[in-house]
Protein backbone atom coordinates (compact mmCIF):
# COMPACT_ATOMS: atom_id res chain seq x y z
CA UNK A 1 0.00 0.00 0.00
CA UNK A 2 1.25 3.46 -0.88
CA UNK A 3 0.29 6.54 1.05
CA UNK A 4 0.10 9.98 -0.55
CA UNK A 5 1.44 11.66 2.54
CA UNK A 6 1.63 15.25 1.31
CA UNK A 7 -1.88 15.33 -0.14
CA UNK A 8 -3.26 13.66 2.98
CA UNK A 9 -1.45 16.14 5.21
CA UNK A 10 -3.06 19.03 3.35
CA UNK A 11 -6.51 17.50 3.85
CA UNK A 12 -5.76 16.86 7.55
CA UNK A 13 -4.67 20.46 8.04
CA UNK A 14 -7.91 21.75 6.50
CA UNK A 15 -9.87 20.12 9.33
CA UNK A 16 -7.41 21.35 11.97
CA UNK A 17 -7.49 24.95 10.69
CA UNK A 18 -10.04 27.10 12.52
CA UNK A 19 -10.21 29.42 9.52
CA UNK A 20 -11.77 26.82 7.23
CA UNK A 21 -15.32 25.50 7.28
CA UNK A 22 -14.13 21.96 6.64
CA UNK A 23 -15.12 19.68 9.53
CA UNK A 24 -14.17 16.32 8.08
CA UNK A 25 -12.06 14.62 5.47
CA UNK A 26 -11.80 11.04 4.38
CA UNK A 27 -8.76 9.09 3.34
CA UNK A 28 -9.73 6.39 0.90
CA UNK A 29 -8.23 3.64 -1.20
CA UNK A 30 -7.49 4.42 -4.81
CA UNK A 31 -6.23 1.08 -6.05
CA UNK A 32 -3.31 0.38 -3.71
CA UNK A 33 -2.78 3.99 -2.66
CA UNK A 34 -4.39 5.84 0.24
CA UNK A 35 -5.40 9.30 -0.97
CA UNK A 36 -7.58 12.13 0.33
CA UNK A 37 -11.22 11.41 -0.45
CA UNK A 38 -14.13 13.72 0.23
CA UNK A 39 -14.30 16.65 2.59
CA UNK A 40 -17.16 18.62 3.97
CA UNK A 41 -18.85 20.66 6.63
CA UNK A 42 -21.76 18.45 7.65
CA UNK A 43 -21.23 15.25 9.65
CA UNK A 44 -24.34 13.66 8.09
CA UNK A 45 -22.63 13.91 4.71
CA UNK A 46 -19.59 12.14 6.15
CA UNK A 47 -21.82 9.34 7.44
CA UNK A 48 -23.22 8.81 3.95
CA UNK A 49 -19.68 8.07 2.70
CA UNK A 50 -19.54 5.11 5.09
CA UNK A 51 -21.26 2.52 2.94
CA UNK A 52 -21.23 -1.24 3.43
CA UNK A 53 -18.85 -1.87 0.55
CA UNK A 54 -16.00 0.47 1.51
CA UNK A 55 -13.32 0.96 4.09
CA UNK A 56 -12.06 4.44 4.76
CA UNK A 57 -10.45 6.60 7.39
CA UNK A 58 -12.18 9.75 8.55
CA UNK A 59 -10.71 12.66 10.45
CA UNK A 60 -13.56 14.60 12.01
CA UNK A 61 -13.82 17.79 14.07
CA UNK A 62 -16.57 17.90 16.70
CA UNK A 63 -17.51 20.81 18.90
CA UNK A 64 -18.69 19.67 22.30
CA UNK A 65 -19.56 21.48 25.49
CA UNK A 66 -22.01 24.23 26.29
CA UNK A 67 -22.21 28.00 26.18
CA UNK A 68 -19.62 28.32 28.94
CA UNK A 69 -17.04 26.12 27.37
CA UNK A 70 -17.00 25.09 23.76
CA UNK A 71 -14.34 22.51 23.07
CA UNK A 72 -13.11 21.28 19.76
CA UNK A 73 -12.21 17.62 19.69
CA UNK A 74 -11.00 15.48 16.85
CA UNK A 75 -11.77 11.86 16.14
CA UNK A 76 -10.04 9.39 13.88
CA UNK A 77 -12.69 7.02 12.54
CA UNK A 78 -11.80 3.84 10.73
CA UNK A 79 -14.87 2.65 8.86
CA UNK A 80 -14.99 -0.93 7.62
CA UNK A 81 -18.25 -1.73 5.82
CA UNK A 82 -19.96 -5.06 6.43
CA UNK A 83 -19.35 -6.23 2.85
CA UNK A 84 -15.58 -5.63 2.96
CA UNK A 85 -13.64 -8.87 2.47
CA UNK A 86 -11.80 -10.54 5.34
CA UNK A 87 -8.44 -9.93 3.73
CA UNK A 88 -9.08 -6.22 3.29
CA UNK A 89 -10.40 -6.01 6.84
CA UNK A 90 -7.22 -7.58 8.14
CA UNK A 91 -5.04 -5.13 6.23
CA UNK A 92 -6.92 -2.07 7.40
CA UNK A 93 -5.17 -2.04 10.79
CA UNK A 94 -1.75 -2.03 9.17
CA UNK A 95 -2.81 0.69 6.75
CA UNK A 96 -4.03 2.81 9.64
CA UNK A 97 -0.47 3.10 10.95
CA UNK A 98 0.36 4.93 7.70
CA UNK A 99 -2.57 7.29 8.14
CA UNK A 100 -1.42 8.00 11.69
CA UNK A 101 1.90 9.30 10.35
CA UNK A 102 -0.15 12.31 9.27
CA UNK A 103 -3.19 12.23 11.55
CA UNK A 104 -1.54 12.67 14.92
CA UNK A 105 -3.85 14.96 16.82
CA UNK A 106 -7.10 13.37 17.98
CA UNK A 107 -8.88 12.79 21.28
CA UNK A 108 -10.04 9.29 20.45
CA UNK A 109 -10.03 6.78 17.67
CA UNK A 110 -12.88 4.56 16.63
CA UNK A 111 -13.05 1.42 14.53
CA UNK A 112 -16.61 1.13 13.33
CA UNK A 113 -18.50 -1.21 11.05
CA UNK A 114 -21.99 -0.66 12.44
CA UNK A 115 -23.91 2.40 11.23
CA UNK A 116 -25.39 2.91 14.71
CA UNK A 117 -21.95 3.63 16.11
CA UNK A 118 -21.52 6.45 13.62
CA UNK A 119 -24.27 8.32 15.47
CA UNK A 120 -23.05 11.83 16.24
CA UNK A 121 -24.25 11.80 19.85
CA UNK A 122 -22.53 8.48 20.48
CA UNK A 123 -19.22 9.80 19.14
CA UNK A 124 -19.53 13.09 21.04
CA UNK A 125 -20.22 11.24 24.29
CA UNK A 126 -17.17 9.06 23.76
CA UNK A 127 -15.07 12.15 23.04
CA UNK A 128 -16.35 13.80 26.23
CA UNK A 129 -15.22 10.76 28.21
CA UNK A 130 -11.84 10.99 26.53
CA UNK A 131 -10.81 13.77 28.84
CA UNK A 132 -11.09 17.46 29.46
CA UNK A 133 -13.45 19.34 31.71
CA UNK A 134 -17.11 18.53 31.42
CA UNK A 135 -19.12 21.46 32.72
CA UNK A 136 -22.53 20.01 32.05
CA UNK A 137 -21.93 16.96 34.25
CA UNK A 138 -24.66 18.02 36.67
CA UNK A 139 -27.36 17.52 34.02
CA UNK A 140 -26.33 13.94 33.24
Radius of gyration: 15 Å
The amount of beta strand, in percent, is 25-35%
**CATH fold call:** Severin
Q: What would CATH call the class?
A: Alpha Beta
Summed up, the domain count is: 1
* Major β-sheet annotation: 6 strands, mixed
- In CATH, the homologous superfamily goes by the name Severin
Overall pLDDT, averaged?
92
Spatial strand order of the main sheet: 1-3-2-4-5-6
- Going by helix content, strand content and strand pairing, the class is alpha/beta
Order of helices and strands: EHEEHEEHEH
What is the helix tally?
4
Briefly summarize what is shown.
With 140 residues, the protein is α/β, with parallel strands linked by helices.
What does this structure look like?
- The protein is of the alpha/beta class.
- The protein has one domain: Severin (3-Layer(aba) Sandwich).
- It is built from 4 helices and 6 strands.
- It has helices spanning 5-16, 43-49, 86-102, 120-129, and strands spanning 2-3, 24-30, 33-40, 55-65, 70-80, 108-112.
- Strands 1-3-2-4-5-6 form a 6-stranded mixed beta sheet, sandwiched between helices.
- It is globular, with a radius of gyration of 15 Å.
- The mean pLDDT is 92.
Features:
140 residues; alpha/beta; Severin; six-stranded mixed sheet
Amino acid sequence: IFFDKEACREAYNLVRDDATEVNWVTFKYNGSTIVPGDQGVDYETFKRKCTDDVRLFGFVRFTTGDAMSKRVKFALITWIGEDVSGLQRAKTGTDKTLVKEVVQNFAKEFVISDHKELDEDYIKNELKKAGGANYDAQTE
